[in-house]
Specification:
The chain is mainly α. It has helices spanning 2-27, 42-47, 91-124, and strands at 37-39, 74-76.
Length: 125
């Protein structure tokens, strides 16, 4: 069951980074020359996840359960609507992305709660 929780934690970390990327885009919507960025799909992250526990080769290394949110690939979006100032942030697209991220986070939270209740119920017998 810890595998389920680690995948959920990785997904929540990815969603947090996705929020940050969208927030940066929205915050710079009026910045001349700003190019909107996007985070790589979670499937790319999932393909790189090691199914087993990672080895800690030194005591000061982070444990395998902690995730570094800086390792998610961020690239420029391909927006066709560029303003005269060179800014290509599409606020409608960013708001839709934030809404989708919120729905996914809500789903992850409910799944984690369900598995936690099942785990506690199995311990009680």
């Amino acid at each position: 069951m810890s595998g389920i929780f680690s995948v959920l934690q990785s997904h929540v970390d990815w969603l947090s980074q996705r929020y940050a990327v969208s927030a940066t885009n929205v915050a710079n919507a009026d910045t001349p020359g700003f190019r909107a960025v996007q985070i790589a799909d979670f499937r790319n992250t999932l393909e790189n996840v090691n199914a087993g526990e990672m080895a800690r080769t030194a005591s000061n290394h982070l444990s395998a359960s902690q995730t570094d949110t800086e390792n998610y690939e961020v690239s420029y979006q391909k927006n066709s609507d560029v303003s005269h100032s060179g800014n290509d942030v599409a606020l409608e697209k960013e708001m839709a992305m934030i809404g989708d991220t919120s729905r996914r986070l809500s789903f992850d939270t409910s799944v984690e709660r369900m598995f936690h209740r099942m785990f506690i119920a199995s311990l009680k017998g």
